[in-house]
Amino acid sequence: MNTGTRNLSKLKKAARIILVGPPGCGKGTQSGRLLDHFKLTPISSGDLLRENVRNRTPLGIQAETVMRSGGLVQDSLMVKLIVGELSKRGWVETRGNLTSGICLTGPLSVIGGPITPRASDSPTASFLLDGFPRTRNQAQSLDSEVAMNLVVNLDVPHDAILDRIANRLVHEPSGRTYNVTWNKPKNPGVDDITGEPLTRRSDDCPETFSKRLKSYAEATQPLLEHYDKAGVLWTVSGSTSDEITPQLDAEILKRFG
Ligand code: AMP
């Protein structure tokens, strides 16, 4: 199995991690730091889907409408997309009938056939899932393909998230975000790179965001219970990313170092 040549020397065995956290909790920041500290490559379901939409693949075309409406893409497609990506990168071994249909980040495509992957225990086969699984059903399907061995639940108080969101500015064309208290743009109100104006996202108003947090919590509870029962759930609490990172690093070293 080709597990790549990434430097994961801090890890002694494969870390197959799922990062779960509410919108605005700093999941992107933690994901970037895990890549930096442990070379843990993040696989983002949203990014993979957007790539399929851009490439006009059958899956992308199918997913586009659902994504636009803010709904969830069909579970079976999501599982094939993610497991296919993991096999393509050599982090799980796939046996079975693979036929074309989905554009992964490379030539392997997996729609239309049963797949039976097996995860490598080599630390170079470590990865981080972001955005998948989102439902208990997806988690159960993933279980039958590959055993994830740590689910990190980022527990950030809603007040802290709302406070952050209230101070968030975004450069819409690039998605670059700033914070008027701790990550100010060099010049007030404009993007550092393009000089274009920064705006507030329409869904960043506290009332709307509060609702999103509530519905996230309701939707995620069954997923967390599923992984709790499986004995792989670990919750880390903190109001800021800097409070969470050292705890997360220590836990990963304890389990996989
Ligand atoms: P994200 O970038 O994670 O916010 O995902 C963007 C969109 O992709 C979501 O609003 C969903 O429509 C779709 N999506 C991403 N991940 C999943 C998933 N695990 N299950 C179903 N749909 C997903």
From TrEMBL:
Q: Where is this region: NMPbind?
A: 44-73
Extract the ranges annotated as region (LID): 167-204
Q: Where is the Adenylate kinase active site lid domain?
A: 168-203
Location in the cell reads:
Mitochondrion matrix
Q: Name one GO molecular function term.
A: AMP kinase activity
Keywords annotated in UniProt: GTP-binding, Hydrolase, Kinase, Mitochondrion, Nucleotide-binding, Transferase
User: Does the keyword field hold Mitochondrion?
Assistant: yes
Cross-referenced InterPro entries, in alphabetical order? Adenylat/UMP-CMP_kin, Adenylat_kinase_CS, Adenylate_kinase_lid-dom, ADK_active_lid_dom_sf, AK3/Ak4_mitochondrial, P-loop_NTPase
Q: Which residues bind AMP?
A: 45, 50, 71-73, 131-134, 138, 201, 212
Residues involved in GTP binding: 24-29, 168, 241
Look up the EC number in the record and give it.
2.7.4.10
The keyword Signal is assigned to this record: no
UniProt GO BP: ADP biosynthetic process; AMP metabolic process; GTP metabolic process; ITP metabolic process
> Per its UniProt entry, which superkingdom is the organism in?
Eukaryota
Quaternary organization = Monomer.
HAMAP family reported in the protein's UniProt record = Adenylate_kinase_Adk (MF_00235), Adenylate_kinase_AK3 (MF_03169)
Function according to Swiss-Prot or TrEMBL: Involved in maintaining the homeostasis of cellular nucleotides by catalyzing the interconversion of nucleoside phosphates. Has GTP:AMP phosphotransferase and ITP:AMP phosphotransferase activities.
Q: Which family does it belong to?
A: Belongs to the adenylate kinase family. AK3 subfamily.
The free-text domain remark for this protein reads: Consists of three domains, a large central CORE domain and two small peripheral domains, NMPbind and LID, which undergo movements during catalysis. The LID domain closes over the site of phosphoryl transfer upon GTP binding. Assembling and dissambling the active center during each catalytic cycle provides an effective means to prevent GTP hydrolysis.
Name assigned to this protein: GTP:AMP phosphotransferase, mitochondrial
What is the originating organism of this protein? Tuber borchii (White truffle)
Organism placement in taxonomy: Eukaryota, Fungi, Dikarya, Ascomycota, Pezizomycotina
Q: What gene does the UniProt entry assign to this protein?
A: ADK2
